[in-house]
Task: inverse folding
């Protein structure tokens, strides 16, 4: 488990999945601002575009999803338990007061294998869990909501997921170390699956499994790789954007800038500064 405490005292944890679920669950994230005196602008939560889907819980407090640019639009109040699909653009939520939340981040192809859910229909959406998954998932989620702490929440979730994943696990699914590894594995699996093995058929399979095109997934994998390289370069005191773009597989620095804006809404340098200084970019800090 990786933990981060902000200068204001907000706590976030990044928790790895247990044995047997590395190709199903990407991670768990928890966040608590209970007892923390945050300014209104520090109660926003900025999330990048992501191919992941999953379930979010609020054990204390509430959250509002901010449509559009996140600042001037009418918010959507989330229920205590909700399902979120993959996001093709960055998103913003807001906690009006102190809050404590928990997220299960899943690989969409794993969810598809276990449930047959239409992942494409959930892209860029967040819905009450019962509108997407069946009663057994809702019962598990309610038990996780009532768990006394994160460790017990993880135990409840994994006791539910493990037998279902063992039954549904597809050949070639391997534990995910990065989005790049996952995208490459998906491409190989898609080409090897089914009767037809053309590139177009493989792309249709990837879209059915993940709700997005292989090209879009490859873009997200480049963005994650670049993000990790920026953090490493910061530690070394040597952030050179042209070099980072080349190392992450971008055509040039402009390509890096365009894709970073698509994924995060900001230029690479603006993102770097916000991750360093802005409380509301906590998820970027815990992910690194």
Result:
């Amino acid at each position: 488990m990786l933990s981060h405490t902000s200068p204001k005292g907000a706590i976030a944890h990044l928790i790895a999945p247990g044995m047997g679920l590395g190709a199903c669950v990407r991670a768990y994230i928890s966040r608590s601002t209970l007892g923390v005196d945050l300014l209104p602008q520090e109660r926003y939560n900025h999330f990048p575009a992501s191919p992941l889907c999953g379930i979010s819980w609020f054990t204390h407090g509430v959250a509002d999803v901010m449509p559009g640019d996140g600042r001037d639009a009418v918010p959507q109040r989330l229920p205590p338990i909700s399902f979120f699909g993959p996001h093709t653009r960055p998103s913003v939520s807001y906690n009006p007061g102190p809050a404590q939340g928990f997220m299960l981040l899943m690989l969409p192809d794993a969810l598809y294998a276990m449930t047959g859910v239409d992942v494409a229909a959930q892209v860029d959406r967040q819905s009450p869990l019962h509108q997407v998954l069946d009663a057994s998932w809702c019962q598990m989620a309610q038990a996780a909501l009532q768990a006394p702490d994160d460790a017990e929440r993880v135990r409840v979730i994994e006791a539910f997921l493990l037998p279902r994943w063992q039954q549904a696990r597809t050949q070639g699914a391997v534990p995910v170390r990065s989005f790049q590894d996952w995208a490459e594995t998906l491409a190989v699996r898609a080409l090897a699956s089914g009767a037809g093995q053309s590139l177009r058929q493989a792309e249709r399979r990837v879209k059915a499994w993940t709700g997005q095109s292989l090209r879009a997934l490859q873009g997200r994998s480049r963005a994650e790789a670049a993000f990790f390289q920026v953090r490493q370069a910061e530690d070394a005191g040597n952030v050179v954007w042209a070099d980072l773009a080349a190392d992450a597989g971008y055509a040039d620095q402009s390509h890096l800038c365009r894709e970073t804006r698509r994924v995060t809404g900001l230029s690479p340098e603006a993102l770097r500064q916000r991750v360093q200084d802005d409380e509301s970019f906590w998820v970027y800090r815990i992910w690194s």
Summary: The chain has a mean pLDDT of 90.
